[in-house]
Amino acid sequence: MVNSYTLLSALQKFLERRGVAVDGLTVERMVIAMIDWFRSVPVDALGEPPAADVLVYRYGGWSEGCATGFKLSLLRRVTVTNDNGATDWYAGITLMFDPARYAGVHPFATVSADWPTLEAFLHAIESSAAYRASVSAAPMGATLESGGLR
Questions:
Q1: Does residue 73 register a pLDDT over 80?
Q2: Domain segments of the chain: what residues?
């Protein structure tokens, strides 16, 4: 059964097999790891394909109390339908950067399904303002994320 825990577990196992340490990721390596996971690890909900399986690239400012940063995420969103409707489950990687270099970068999100191929989606990521600003920067932190929305 697909849910946030099984997705997160699948991502963790994939990263471990590849020898990828999340806390040492750069934005480039994060994107490569997530696209490789998406391509090579199919998601299966009780033997049937999910209603949707896409990648979500998003970024924007973040603050909590006195902590401020710039979040850049690549998440896998799997939509499962049942008698209660549809549920979107997420798992992915988020990098946090020093917000100073991102003052002029506005929040943005795009989904792989909006592009004709994964290569076009990757090109959209690599062409984004946040990616270009982050490719030469070391993140302040990295985390695996998971969750769900009904």
A1: yes
A2: 4-149
